[in-house]
Specification:
Chain A is mainly α. Chain A has helices at 10-19, 26-48, 51-81, 88-121, 125-151, 155-177, 183-208; one strand at residues 84-86. Classes of the chains: A mainly alpha, B alpha+beta.
């Protein structure tokens, strides 16, 4: 039993309780699979020579993955960790995280569009090739870094760096040494640790937090 | 300043502290956070509810019963007062 025998550190208690909801590994797996989906998008772009088809595949994959993630998360977490409504300060942090993610998506779509327009208008490839990885890296590290900070989940800092390295790994070896790293390899190498951590965390989570079975209906609480 | 004995009991202190850092929570959350059994949690919540420190709101999520527990304003004030009293009492101690 983990009852308290001394004055609790309330800030630490709130952080511990909230960050426990990210110990299921599902977000890690979602991020890893998103990277795999982007890699497939790139492969499809090469096959069909169509950026629109590639974009549609990535968008569809994102919708399927995020919907599955949301449903799975509720089914996995609620019977094990329960449910709570955070205090206003934490709710502001969650809203800020959503805004950051939304902003990042908009930036990604704009960058994708600029890349397409630049490719179509014959902008010197060198400019795009040098700048795009930088934009990618900064975007990924800032977004996932902010998520790590706002949600109190430090491993997201590492994911920011791993996700951010995809851009430079895809483009700079080609520009500098003429070595083309295939997108599935670049994404795969960097997504593998994220997926591995996610699966390990998921297994650990399911073992650590069994489903709580109420011997009496929950509605009986407080009726004694 | 006297120490509120209702809150001072370790299991209830744990429940009060865990409810203090959220707006409301269900029983599974409290079980997970405190490590209490269903029976213990229920009886401690009843005592806290009787004292006016917690409010138990019963409702439904879909067809399933869903109960949320929250500290009342009185409960929050009592918990703050308890912390202040304990800090004052323990602050004067030396090694």
């Amino acid at each position: 039993m983990t009852v308290m025998t001394h004055l609790p550190d309330l800030r630490a208690l709130e952080r511990q309780a909230f960050s426990k909801f990210y110990e299921d590994g599902l977000f890690d797996i979602l991020l890893g699979l998103m990277m795999v989906a982007i890699a497939f998008g790139a492969v499809i772009q090469d096959w069909l020579a169509s950026e629109l088809a590639s974009f549609a595949v990535m968008l569809a994959a994102a919708v399927v993955l995020v919907s599955s993630f949301t449903i799975l998360r509720v089914r996995l977490l609620r019977p094990r960790l329960g449910d709570f409504k955070p205090r206003p300060e934490r709710r502001r942090r969650i809203t800020a995280t959503r805004l950051v993610l939304l902003g990042s998506m908009v930036l990604g779509v704009v960058a994708f569009g600029i890349g397409g327009v630049a490719g179509g208008t014959g902008t010197p490839p060198a400019t795009v090739e040098v700048l795009l990885p930088v934009v990618w890296f900064v975007n990924a590290t800032v977004v996932l870094g902010l998520m790590a900070y706002l949600l109190d989940v430090p491993r997201f800092y590492l994911y920011g760096v791993l996700f951010g390295l995809v851009g430079p790994l895809l483009i700079w070896p080609d520009v500098l040494w003429g070595v083309r790293v295939p997108p599935p390899l670049a994404f795969g190498i960097l997504a593998a640790p994220i997926l591995a951590i996610g699966v390990w965390k998921l297994v650990h989570f399911v073992r650590t937090y069994p489903v709580r079975v109420n011997p009496e209906p929950e509605a009986d609480l407080g009726d004694r | 300043m006297g120490v509120d004995r209702l809150i001072h009991e370790p299991a209830r202190l744990s429940i009060m502290a865990n409810l203090f850092v959220v707006e409301s929570a269900n029983a599974t959350y409290l079980l997970q956070q405190t490590g209490l059994t269903w029976g213990n949690l229920g009886s401690h919540l009843t005592r806290l509810e009787t004292a006016g420190y917690v409010a138990i709101e019963k409702g439904y999520r879909g067809r399933k019963p869903h109960t949320m527990v929250a500290l009342t304003d009185e409960g929050r004030t009592a918990f703050r007062r308890y912390r202040a009293a304990m800090q004052e009492a323990l602050g004067g101690l030396t090694d």
